[in-house]
């Protein structure tokens, strides 16, 4: 796991079955403004499928961070980002019911557990 928030993270392939609940792990603890439930956040992130390790999305690949209200995101992010401080890097393991729902739900990631590494760049 890369612990510098200046570079795209690398995610080690997980061992064992996906957890049933949300897992929150701070890789780097930030020292800036703390994100709260109602915050709009500016983040860089990387997302991979838990079972395969395949990357499905990355703001790093697009060369720019994204900015959005936490309330507009998947439940795993709504619950996993608050408490994080600017300058921090956090890993979230998000089960299907807190991501894109059960298999057959219409999204290409429905039914999948997902791993995200999120760098918090700013909070409004």
Short description:
The chain is mostly beta strands. It is 8% helix and 32% strand. Strand 2 and strand 3 form a beta hairpin.
Per-chain topology:
Elements: E1 23-28, E2 40-49, E3 55-58, H1 59-62, E4 66-69, H2 75-80, E5 89-94, E6 114-123
Antiparallel strand pairs: 1-5, 2-3, 2-4, 2-6, 5-6
Q: Unreliable segments (pLDDT under 50, ≥5 consecutive)?
A: none
Order of helices and strands: EEEHEHEE
How big is the Rg?
14 Å
Number of helices: 2
Question: What class, by secondary structure content?
Answer: mainly beta
Please tally the β strands and state the result.
6
Oligomer: single chain
Measured by DSSP, the beta-strand proportion falls in: 25-35%
Estimate percent helicity: under 10%
Q: Give the mean pLDDT.
A: 94
Number of domains: 1
CATH architecture: Roll
Q: Tell the overall outline.
A: globular
The CATH class label is Alpha Beta
The third-level CATH topology is: Chitinase A, domain 3
User: Could you tell me how far the N terminus lies from the C terminus, measured between alpha carbons in angstroms?
Assistant: 28 Å
Largest sheet: 6 strands, antiparallel
Organism: Luethyella okanaganae
Keywords: Isomerase, Rotamase
Domain PPIase FKBP-type: 38-124
GO molecular function: peptidyl-prolyl cis-trans isomerase activity
Describe the model.
The protein has 124 residues and is mainly beta. It has one domain (23-123): Chitinase A, domain 3 (Roll). The chain contains 2 helices and 6 strands. Strands 1, 2, 3, 4, 5 and 6 form a 6-stranded antiparallel sheet that branches. The longest helix is centred in the middle third of the chain and has 6 residues, at 75-80. The N and C termini lie far apart (28 Å).
